[in-house]
Every structure is written in C-alpha cells, then in structure tokens.
Specification:
The complex is a heterodimer of chains A (998) and B (419). By secondary structure, chain A is α+β, with helices and mostly antiparallel strands. Chain A is built from 24 helices and 50 strands. Chain A folds into seven domains: 161 residues, Ubiquitin-like (UB roll); 186 residues, 3-Layer(bba) Sandwich (FAD/NAD(P)-binding domain); 133 residues, FAD/NAD(P)-binding domain (3-Layer(bba) Sandwich); 65 residues, Arc Repressor Mutant, subunit A; 151 residues, 2-Layer Sandwich (Gyrase A, domain 2), CATH 3.30.1360; 90 residues, Aminomethyltransferase beta-barrel domains (Alpha-Beta Plaits), CATH 3.30.70.1400; 104 residues, Aminomethyltransferase beta-barrel domains (Elongation Factor Tu (Ef-tu), domain 3, Beta Barrel), CATH 2.40.30. In chain A, helix 3 packs parallel to helix 9 and helix 10 crosses helix 11. Chain B is built from eleven helices and 19 strands. Classes of the chains: A alpha+beta (998), B alpha/beta (419).
Chain lengths: 998, 419
C-alpha cells in the first residue's frame, strides 16, 4: 500500500485519526476522513489521473472544486458506476473504488495516446473537411464514425439499471442564499434576523467557502471558528434551513431555483431508506447569489501537464487537506492572490523555486515573499512546460519585455490569471452581464428577477467586502420581502489590500517550437484551434464554441471560456465585451438524471389506475391490458385457451346468452343547470333540446376544425341534469374542453360540469338473457314496454340505492349498463354474476368488447383517429343543419367533404378464412411496385362468430358507393402479406337492429 | 477557396493548418438582389444554395439578424427521418432523405449524416397497429420500414427496461433503418459555405425591420444594414415567422410560437447505437458522436419567444427516460436549452406563395424542421424561383387551412401546442 508521501504532518481539516482505504485503478491507497478523492490522490503523489478527450494527453488534478476539467473518474463499480465524476468533489469514504477513464487497458500505456503524435493533423473541426469519400452516400462516414465514437466520449455508463432511488422536494422561502462562503453566511444572518424564512444552500459538506482554506482571522478568531459559530447560530434559528452538499444548478423563471442535494454520495451506498440524491425545487421572494468565483488559468505551451494546477487549488490542498502536491514549485501569476499560494507552500516546507509575475508592479505581498527568500521574477511569463505523464519537470520563463529566458526545474506549477465571478445562475436568471474594464472581469449587470449578487460573485474578492456586501444584501432582501431591515455588524478581518490584477490571456511562444497552448483542457482546444476558427470565419463566440468545442466539456468551460473569448477578441482586434460570451446554460454542474427524474419512475411513472372491481377481475383469472393508464381485463381464459379461443368463446356466450363487462373506464361527466340541454346542443352535432327525461342518446362531438372528436351516450336524468359518457381515451380532454367552453366561450350558460369517472362504476350486461339477469338485480320494471331501448333511470340495484340503469348497447345485443357508486361496485358486480349463473353468464374483457363492436360496425379509437369526419364514419346524417355546434363552420370546407374522402366500410377476406390485420393498407393492384397508390386502410379486425369468418373495418376512398362487393387487396408489406378481400357493409350482425330493440 | 478533402487536412498538418480561408465571406450588402432570403438558419441557407445551384440565380442574399445557424438548426436533437404516413409528408421527406444521403458530397462539408436508424417504440397492441399502418404506408411509398418484435427491439436497445417492473412494457417498434442523426451545426455551416462559393452574400447581423410593398408586390426590404431591393423575398425564420410576417402585413398566420426544450448528457463511450423514441411519454434519445446523450422534451406549455426552458419539463422528460431506460440514472445531464418552435394548426409546414406577390413563406415546422432542411430548401428555392410550388410542396400551402386540406400526421387537430 502506497504511503501518503505528500501529506503534511499536521494542519488542515482532515482527521488523521480516521484513515480510509480506497482504490484507484489497480492500486490501493489510504487517505483521511475529510479528504476528497483528489486530495487523497495528491497526498499519495498520484499525478496522472486521466486522459484528455481528443489527443489522450496525460491529465492531472487541475483544481479543487466544481470547475475541474481533468480529474474525471469512474466512481464505484457495477451498477453503481458513475462516469465522469470529478475527483475534486468526491468526499472520500472507506472502500471507495475509482477508475481512470478514456483510456485503453492501462492509463499510463493508453494506446490512443498516439493521437497526440498526429495532433497537427487533427485540428478543430478536421472532421468537417474529410471522411466524406468520393461516393454520394454515407458509407465511408459511417465506417469512420464507428472509430470516432469509440474514441470519443469520456467515461462509460454501466448500462445496468440504477439500483438507487431519488427524491424531489419543494420548498418556499422569503430569501434564498446560494453559497455558504463569508458573503453568503453574512447574508443569511442578516436576512434571518427578523424572522424571514431563509434557506442557505452550499455545495460542500460544510459551509465556509474560502474561509475553509484561507488563513484569515475574523473578529480576532480563526476564520474557521467564525464559520462554525455563525453556522451554529443559523442552525439554531427556526426560520433558517441549511442545505449542505447541495448545488443550486439552475435559475428559472419566477425565482424558481433547482438544487440537487447529494444525500448519500459521501457514503459507500445510501443508508437505510434514504435516497441517493434529492432535487429541491425552491422558490424564493428574493435570491442572494453568493456563488463565488473561478480562478482562471494561464495559457502557455504544454500547460496541460500533470502538476500544473490552479494556484488557489494548490493553496486549498495545502491549507485544507494538509497535502503538498509537489516538492519544487513555481508559482505563475498575474494577480496578488497566488502570492499567498507561494507563502502557503513555503510555510508547508515546499521549495518555491520562483514566483513568476506577468506584472511589473510590486505586489502587496512582495515583502512577505522576500522575507521567505522566494525569488520573484517580474514582467515575465512561463512560455512552455516540459515533462511527461508523470508530470511537469521544468518550465521555460521569458521576460515579457524581451530578452532573458531561463529554465526552472520544478514538479509543480501553481498558476493564476485572476478570478472570474461565477455568473452562471445570475445569467440564467435573465440578467445581463457587464464588462468591468477596471477589474478585467465580467460582472453581474442589471437584474431581471428579484436577486442580487454579493462578494466574489459580484467581482468583489476581498473578505471585508464580501462580509459587507453579504450583510447589506441580506438586510435588503429581508426588507424587500416585508421584514424589518437588520444589517448585521461586519466583523473586523485581517487582510492585505491587494494590488491590481493585469491579466495575460495568452503567453508568448517560446523561442523554439510551438507546443500547444491549451485553453480547454478537457476537450483539447488550443490557442491554435481558436486562431484556426478565426481564420475560417467562425468568429462569433457561439461559432467558436460550436466549431472548436471550446467550453463544451463536462466543466462547461468554467476555466476556459473567458481565456478563449479573450484570445478570439485579440484575433479579431476587438474588445472582450464586443466579442461577448456564450450563454450560460443550466445546470451549473452536471446533475444525475436519476435525481432529475425523481421518484416518479418505474412503476410510479403514471401509476396504474384501477376500477373498483379490479380485485374481482383478478379473482376471475383475467389477463390484463393497459388502456391508457387504466388496466382493464383483456380476456378471461379458461384452462388452455389462447386469447383467440377466449374472445371467440366470450363473444359466442354473450350473443348466445349473456355476458358482463366492466366499462368503468369510460369518461363520465355530470352536467347540471338550466342551460345544460342548450350546452349539449352546442357541443354535439345532433339535437338535445327535446331529449325526454329518462332517455339516453348517442352523441358525437367534433373538434373545432370539424373533425370527429369523441362519441358516447348522454342521458337526461332530470330536466336540468344530464350524465355524459366519453371514450376512455378522451375522458380528461373532453372534460377540459367542456370547462373551456363554459369558462371562456359561453360563460353566460348556467351549467356546472363535474367529472364523476371516479365516483361511478359501470357494468355492461349484454345478450338475449340480459333482461332476465337485470330484472333480478334492479327494483324497476325492465320490460321492453316499461324500459325500452335508450331508457335511462335511477334504480336500486342489489339493494343498493342511488344506482342508475341505462338500456344502451355497444355490442348490438339487448343490453343494459348499470352504474353503481364505486364503494358498492364489487358487491353489485358479484350479485349480477350470481344472478347470471343460471344463464351461464360470462365476464368478458376488452378483446370481446372490441370484437363485438367490430361485428356491429361501431366506430372506436382506430376509426376516430383525428383525421376522419362524421360523414366519413357514416354519421353525417346526425349533423344538424338547423343549429350551430362546435366544428360545424369548418366541417364543410371543400377538402372535408365530397366523394373522394375515405369512408367507413367493412371487409371480409375473399376466401372467407384468411385473418385480416389492422394497420394494413388497401391497394387495387396486388403486384404494383412502390410507390403504390393506397386507397384506404384497415382500422380494426375481428372474427364474426355467427358467420364464422374473419372481418375487418376500415376506410376506403369513395366508401361503399364506389366499392361495395368489389375485391381489393389488403397490403401488409411489413410482413409480406397481401390478402384479397371484399368490401362490405360495416355492420356484420343484426343489420336491422332488431336485437337491441327486442 | 480550396475544396475540403483528406489531402487538404493532411497538407494542413504539415503547414500548421494555416492555409484555410474563411468558410464564408463577410460581404457588405449590395443595393439590389435577384432574391433575398430572410433567415440564415438551415432552411434559409439551403434555399439560397439551391436557388444558386439549381435555378441559375446569381445575385442572392441571405439576411440573418444574428450569427448564422443561431436558431433552431443549432438547437435541435439532430434527428433525420422520413418515416411519415401521410402521402404529402412521405414524398416530401423521402425526397429530403435522398438529399441527405448525398449532402456531404454535394456541399463538400461533412455533415456527419449517420444512418444508424430510428426506432419508435410501441407499448400496446393498438400502438403496434398504428405503427403498422404507418410502416405499411412507408413501404408502399418506397420508404424503408421494419416492424420490430420485442425481441428485435431488445437486440438494438438492450438498455431498456424489459423487467416486469416496466410500467409500459415494450411490445415492439417501428424502425426506419435509413434514419439517423447529423451534425446540426455542420448543416448550417456547410450550406453557408457552399452557397457562399456560388456567390450568395450571407449578411450576418442584418435584421429585417420592414418590407417595401407596393401594389401588392414586394419591392425590397429594410434592414439594420440599410435598404435592399429585390422583387423576390423568401421568409425562412421559423420560430419568429409571425413577427417577420407582421412586418409584411401578414398579421394572422396559422402558427403559434412555443418553446421546446432539448438537453444533452455528459459525453459517454458508445451507449446507444440508434435513435429511439418512447411510445408512452415525451422522451426520445440518441447519442452524438462526441458521446452526449441527446434528449428532446415537450413544449413548456405556454407561448413564448424565449430560448430557455423551465425545470418541470426537464423533470418530466427524465421521468419518462428513467421509466424507459433506468440505466441513465447515474448519467448526468450536462446542459439544457430551448428553441422557439413554429407550431402550425395541423402539425405540418408551410412552403408557399403568399397574398403578397413576390413574397414567399417557409415556416410552421413544429418539431420537425431539422430533418426537413434539404427538402425544405430545395422546394422553397423552386417556389421562389418559379413563383409556384413544386409538386412535392404543393400541399403545404398557406391557404390549405381555409380549404380544410389538413395534413395532420398525429391527428390531434387545430391546437398547435399538441403537435
């Protein structure tokens, strides 16, 4: 087991008493409680952690935070493997397993590192210019693409179902503070002082931000102590809610913020019933953005070697984790901040070979370095680095004023080109960024939503300003949400006033050679690629991004966008704000899709809707089928029966004696009020005003464009009370439509509509013996005289009062439908079954229901496909000429009428035997080569039990008038089927309708 | 300007890639053109290209208010297919498919058209029947289609949920093997470069502010870069069709603007080798060559011109995604964005003359504009040049709604947001 050779004996926030074992690739290491995977790897002097996207160049840890472009690993294994996980954000746990990615068998001997040798031939966008081949097809490209796809990508997904579960929560507050650094903590403190509900979100295990790794004193205390006190104070308040390990990833409309809490990611696997992660949907009166800033790198030759890191990150590893990432360091900077890295490294015992400063000025920290005998090389820049997969070995330094080149041996370069405010959330909120020419940074400009930025996120990096801005913003936020202002006193801090930052966006080339200067380390975008983009006219920043892939890696360019656009601005000869920046898209850092999906997945994705009789069907041994989100009995097989056997038996038994079917899923809408008949008159194509009480009527409604929409039976229960049924599929939509018409179009109509689909169960009883069965159940006389076809009445059913009986038929048989309040549905169902036993009653499912309606030529979903008119379906006669109704105005347009439309007909196979198939097209010529003229299609198919042959329904151009008794071909080329069939009337049983009137 | 080829790239490798010139010029607007196309997106650029190439017009301008390819051509989910059922759509999109198959060679720009196939999943017998109807129509129209069984789907898509826990089990699917994906930006850039080489002036940062129309005939346009004369002006600005048309006095169009979200995951090694659509929710997925899983969502549900979406739709898409494909749980979403859709009343586009003589309209693409790019440009060029539609787009007229000639592939009717 490797020793932690880079670990300091003391210092940092790690617990040396709690060693943790972990594996990276094939080696086992130890780290300590409090480490990240990155800090633990650095402690063990592991420099090579990954390979870049394109050239497979060696990559080491680059940062200490969410901006990490390089140190991406497979975390965990098996079905928990997470690709592209940033080592800098993984809290170390005992037994952690991580693997490097985007490599061959071995990270060190990755065969694809050969790409690096050909990098001159693989510039940005080379693939747009080649691989087309001389032939006018896609074959060469698709052959090459196979290799490109395998080479591209970074990590690999396991392909196995994710074993963990996820959660979503919503919460409101007056003030949401994003970021728990000094500015955020002060903001939370003053915002909460007078009772406003405050939520503080921080992406680490513990808030504190920079105070966790900087060596400041606040109020005469160590920064860390001040944090702990402040956090404890906030936690003690009832109106403050702190979310740790939570990243605010997206800022949406109406101050809606998406956050993800990594509930159990710091553990080997989720404990107990906890979710792995939880998405928080937060909505706030006011948002304080204390999101900090990202340090920007220097752009010089081979600046991507392992061991070249952001200076702030190096300081973090030293101060927070007690790790020195090298023995001999060169610090390279254009600002004062990195001087503190030189000091920290020196004080930790590392040799600081030199600090190279691009500026001529003396830093405020210069004296502290001189005291430590650290050499400062002003007005100079590193122009190239040398090294190998094990890291940087030396750097070449040039004076920026010409002359003096020198080589410095080192194994660590800590670089800083200043800090860029993290504007992601601000920009997502709709706010426009502004360029601050004095400070050379983009800062938040005018706000669009109720938010403000504070501290480093606002471009103010000094601790004192962070605290002041935080305090003021918290108070302002409280007052803007109706609470008294309570600016908290800002504690005194130890801090040096830093001298001005003078960015150097691109270092000059070395005297010899042109090593690639990387801007985007993950995607291997170098300065030369940006210059190529410029030469080729991809000069808009959006073109630059899309052409070179700059900033399109998993880090979304947090350390590459600003240098990239600055280099493009330089090439164009325009200013940085003129060049502009690309859009900051959510999420701020990538969010697992499991978390975004939340808990409503698997069986909980659109939960199953069951009728009140569901358990009875189950006991009858039914086979189920999904009907939208309902489940319905499809058929009730007896032993050894196929589905075909079963529905033929059920059909025969029903038509021969009696059958029963659960039709609860049909939409049921209760309409009441004095204008209900008038309302129906406008909704349906047929007449309703004169429908007598106690009568049902079949109705059809159209869409506004005149196309058939939905059909069903509506009954008049009393003068001002109607009950409507709709198809199962359209139950919700029709209800919404009725509401729309009543609320928006005809608010003057006195009608109330209520969906009662859930309140009533419905059982159809059909067949010649149905009357005998029903008469045993209900308390009213159901003889043909007393209760003729289309009768509707209240009744007591099996002793249950308040039921309803309708004499309606979908099967074409003598039939009844009984509606029962849901709580009694199963009881009544059993009673009907018992009553029917002497007639061998059968329960039937959707298969038989469908077959019988096909035999009878009733239209249903496949015919009502959103393209057919009432006339197409043979229902044109129902359309009243005497009144207006929804869809009438448009129903008579030229193209929607006439003989050439496809009309509803029936089919029988010419040989009387071959089954027909729904989904087949109809052609005239059985041997024509494509394109073949299609004159219609088969919508529904079944088996006519009485006549003992297959049947079909469909639509054919010209309808029966043109085709009656003629032979056409059912063409199903997907299965190489072509069947001659005869066009017939769509009504196959009882065409005169004697049975249902009987 | 040099042709793109492997040899040129190799040559560049030896010379520091210094020999490449601008992919397109940055010209000053001329006073007058034979035709002006408004909109430097895929359709506008393709139109200009085909006008120049096939209709012998040499003085053509494309006016783009921002940077070319900044609209939906660079915001879509890159899917190319011609798996349509209705006759008018089938022939139009299949013509497009044939153009796609030769596009890289035709415009000398690798648009990376990858014919990896598209599979629409079915989750019920009724859905299988509906797909069969479509697939049979495709076959009879000469378009490739396969009806896959559940087992065949499993061979192509092993990462779907085939367990008993799947809420909507996979019954099978309809496959178009020639469908696939293309690199969306490359389509815009490739057409731009090819058009530019034929002399088309691409005017970026040139926003149209008005039309000069006299006696019902267009004479030219006003732009932020000055007035430009032309007797033929084509509008191809899907997403903003209503706004631009209003400038020409066409105030009532059968179009609503909605925003549609799309999203992409972190880059992964090959995970899914075809395009796949869920049949029981709003979810479809493919994988880009860079490795990102690309997902499309549904409309956010309110009319908007914003190119940004809200979180509920993202959550909804990933609920569907997790229901279908629980293996994506630990993959991370990298980026999500939105495009503004021209949603038409029947879900089909408009490529048409207008009541104003010399003014032509291309719009109403709903979700389907990207795959239509070549066919749309080809047909629109014909319409602009000949002042009448080609047989392939004669159904897609602006007046079809008055006539009741609906081309409603989904059958959901005159509610644009539902298409």
């Amino acid at each position: 087991m490797a020793t932690q050779s880079n670990r300091l004996p003391g210092g940092g926030e790690i617990d040396r008493g709690k060693p943790l074992t972990f594996r990276f690739d094939d080696k086992t290491y130890t780290g300590f409680q409090g480490d990240t995977l990155a800090s633990a790897l650095l402690a063990n002097n592991v420099k090579l952690v990954g390979r870049s996207f394109k050239y497979h160049r060696p990559r080491g840890v680059f940062s200490a935070g969410p901006e990490e472009p390089n140190a991406l690993v497979h975390l965990r294994s098996g079905d928990r493997q997470e690709p592209n996980t940033r080592a800098t954000m993984i809290e170390l746990y005992d037994g952690l397993i991580a693997e490097s990615q985007n490599r061959g068998k071995s990270l060190r001997n990755d065969p694809q590192r050969i790409n690096n040798l050909f990098k001159a031939f693989l510039p940005a966008g080379f693939y747009y210019k080649t691989f087309m081949g001389p032939f006018r097809n896609t074959r060469l490209w698709m052959f090459i693409e196979g290799f490109i796809r395998k080479s591209a990508g970074m990590g690999a997904a396991s392909g196995l179902p994710d074993p963990d579960h996820y959660d979503q929560m919503s919460r409101h507050c007056e003030i949401l503070v994003i970021g728990g650094g000094p500015a955020g903590l002060m903001a939370a403190k003053s915002a909460a002082a007078n009772g406003a509900r405050v939520i503080l979100v921080d992406d680490r295990a513990d808030p504190g931000g920079q105070l966790r790794y900087e060596q400041y004193e606040i109020d005469g205390k160590k920064g860390l102590d001040w944090i702990n006190e402040t956090v404890a104070g906030l936690e003690a308040m009832d109106n403050v809610f702190i979310l740790r390990r939570t990243t605010a990833f997206g800022y949406y409309d109406h101050n809606f913020i998406g956050c993800v809490e990594r509930v159990c990611d710091h553990l080997p696997e989720p404990e107990g019933n906890k979710p792995r992660q939880r998405v928080w949907n937060l909505q706030a009166g006011h948002v304080v953005l204390a999101t900090g800033s990202h340090e920007q790198p220097m752009v010089f030759g081979n600046n991507d070697l392992p061991g070249i890191m952001l200076a702030g990150a190096v300081r973090t590893y030293v101060n927070q984790y007690g790790v020195v990432p090298g023995k001999r360091a060169v610090v390279f900077t254009s600002c004062d901040d990195a001087y503190r890295t030189a000091i920290a490294l020196h004080d930790a015992g590392t040799t600081v070979v030199a600090l190279v400063d691009t500026r001529k000025l003396d830093s405020s920290y210069a004296q502290q370095l001189l005291d430590r005998k650290i050499r400062i090389i002003n007005d100079s820049a590193i122009v190239s680095a040398q090294g190998n997969a094990d890291g940087v070995t030396s750097v070449e330094v040039h004076s920026l004023s010409g002359g003096g080149a020198q080589r410095l041996d080192c194994d660590l370069v800590a670089m800083s080109n200043g800090w860029a405010p993290a504007l992601h959330l601000f920009s997502q909120s709709g706010g426009k960024t502004a360029w601050d020419a004095d400070r050379n940074i983009f800062v938040p400009g005018d706000s669009k939503q109720a938010e403000c930025s504070v501290g480093a996120a606002n471009g103010n990096f000094s601790l004192k300003t962070c605290l002041e801005e935080g305090s003021a913003a918290g108070a302002m936020a409280a007052s803007s949400t109706g609470f008294n202002t309570a600016v908290q006193a800002v504690p005194a801090v130890s801090e040096i006033h830093e001298s001005a930052y003078e960015p150097l966006w691109e270092c000059p080339d070395p005297a010899k050679g042109h090593p690639k200067k990387f801007v985007d380390h993950q995607d291997d975008v170098a300065v030369s690629d940006i210059q190529l983009a410029y030469r080729e006219g991809y000069i808009s920043v959006e073109h630059l991004k899309r052409y070179t892939t700059l900033g399109m890696g998993t880090d979304q360019g947090k350390t590459s966008n600003v240098p990239g656009l600055a280099i493009m601005a330089e090439a164009r000869g325009c200013s940085i704000p003129e060049a502009g920046h690309t859009t900051f898209r959510p999420p701020y850092t990538p969010v697992s899709m499991g978390a975004l999906g939340g808990a409503e997945t698997g069986e909980h994705y659109m939960p199953i809707r069951r009728t009140a009789i569901d358990s009875w069907h189950e006991e009858q041994g039914c086979k189920w089928i999904d009907a939208g989100i309902w489940r319905r009995p499809r058929y009730y097989p007896q032993s050894g029966e196929t589905i075909r056997d079963a529905f033929i038996r059920e059909t025969g038994m029903t038509r021969g004696s009696v059958g029963m079917c659960d039709v609860t899923t049909l939409g049921k809408i209760d309409l009441q009020g004095p204008d209900t008949a008038e309302f129906l008159e406008r909704i349906y194509i047929n007449h309703w005003m004169k429908l007598p009480v106690g009568k049902a009527r079949y109705g059809m409604m159209l869409r506004e464009d005149g196309i058939a929409y939905d059909d069903g039976v509506t009954s008049r229960m009393s003068e001002n009370h109607f009950v409507m049924t709709t198809t199962t599929a359209n139950a919700v939509k029709v209800m919404a439509n009725l509401e729309f018409y009543l609320q928006v179009i005809w608010p003057e109509l006195r009608v109330q509509v209520t969906s009662v689909t859930e309140q009533w169960s419905a059982i159809a009883v059909a067949g010649p013996n149905s009357r005998k069965v029903i008469q045993k159940i209900v308390d009213i006389d159901v003889s043909n005289e007393a209760f003729p076809f289309m009768g509707a009445s209240g009744c007591v059913a099996a002793g249950i009062p308040g039921c309803r009986l309708f004499r309606i038929s979908f099967s074409g048989e003598l039939a009844f439908e009984i509606n029962v309040p849901c709580d009694y549905a199963r009881y009544v169902c059993e009673k009907i079954y018992e009553a029917g036993r002497e007639f061998d009653i059968v329960p039937y499912g959707t298969e038989t229901l469908g077959n019988m309606r096909i035999e009878k030529g009733h239209v249903a979903g496949p015919e009502l496909d959103g393209r057919t008119t009432a006339d197409d379906l043979g229902l044109g006669m129902m359309m009243s000429k005497k009144k207006e109704f929804v869809g009438k105005r448009l129903a008579y347009r030229d193209s929607m009428t006439g003989e050439n439309r496809k009309k509803f007909v029936g089919f029988v196979p010419a040989d009387g035997k071959t089954p027909l198939k729904a989904g087949a097209q109809i052609v005239v010529n059985e041997n024509a080569a494509p394109p073949v003229e299609m004159i219609g299609h088969v919508t529904s198919t079944g088996y006519c039990v009485e006549h003992d042959h297959p049947i079909g329904l469909g639509l054919i151009r010209g309808g029966l008038d043109a085709w009656k008794d003629r032979v056409v071909y059912m063409s199903y080329p997907l299965r190489n089927i072509i069947v001659p069939m005869k066009v017939v009337s769509p009504v196959f049983v009882d065409p005169e309708g004697e049975r249902l009137h009987g | 300007m040099s042709r793109y080829s492997a040899l040129e790239v190799l040559k560049g490798g030896l010379t520091g890639q210094k020999h490449w010139q601008r992919a397109w010029r940055d010209p000053e607007p001329k006073q007058e053109y034979d035709a002006i196309i408004i909109g430097g997106g895929g359709h506008g650029l393709a139109t200009a290209y085909y006008l120049a190439k096939l209709h012998g017009m040499s003085r053509i301008a494309v006016c783009e208010k921002g940077y070319l390819g900044g609209g939906n051509v660079g915001r879509n989910t890159t899917i190319v297919r011609s798996n349509y059922m209705l006759e008018d759509n089938a022939h139009f999109y299949e013509h497009g498919m044939k153009l796609w198959e030769e596009l890289s060679q035709d415009i000398n720009f690798n648009v990376m058209f990858s014919q990896r196939g598209i599979i629409n999943l079915a989750h019920s017998d009724a859905q299988m029947d509906a797909f069969a109807r479509r697939g049979n129509a495709m076959r009879l129209n000469g378009i490739d289609a396969e009806l896959l069984t559940r087992d065949q789907v499993k061979e192509h898509l092993p990462m779907l949920d085939y367990s008993g826990k799947a809420r909507f089990p996979v019954y099978g699917g309809l496959q178009q093997p020639r469908g696939g994906t293309a690199r969306h930006d490359a389509v815009a850039w490739g057409y731009a470069r090819a058009a530019d080489m034929l002399g088309v002036d691409i005017l970026q940062n040139c926003e149209v502010t008005g039309f000069d129309i006299h006696d019902g005939k267009v004479q030219g346009i006003q732009t932020t870069r000055g007035a430009i004369k032309s007797g033929k002006v084509g509008i191809a600005v899907a997403g903003n069709t209503s706004r631009v048309c209003a400038l020409a006095g066409l105030n009532r169009l059968p179009i609503e603007s909605h925003k549609l979200q799309a999203m992409v995951s972190e880059p992964l090694k090959p995970f899914i080798d075809t395009v796949c659509t869920f049949g029981a929710g709003h979810f479809y997925v493919s994988q880009s060559d860079k490795g990102g899983l690309v997902f499309g969502g549904d409309l956010d549900g309110y009319n908007s011109y914003a190119q940004r979406g809200n979180l509920p739709m993202v959550a909804h898409v990933l609920q569907c995604g997790m229901a279908l494909m629980p293996a994506i749980g630990r993959i991370r979403l990298l980026r999500h964005w939105a495009g503004v859709m021209d949603m038409s009343m029947d879900g089909s586009p408009i490529i048409s003359t207008t009541p104003v003589k010399g003014l032509y309209l291309n719009g109403g693409w709903c979700y389907g504009g990207f795959k239509a790019t070549p066919a749309s440009g080809w047909c629109f060029a014909h319409t602009v040049a000949q002042d009448r539609p080609h047989r392939l787009n004669e159904a897609f007229t602006l007046d079809r709604f008055e006539r009741g000639y609906l081309i409603d592939e989904k059958g959901v009717g005159p509610i644009p947001a539902l298409h």
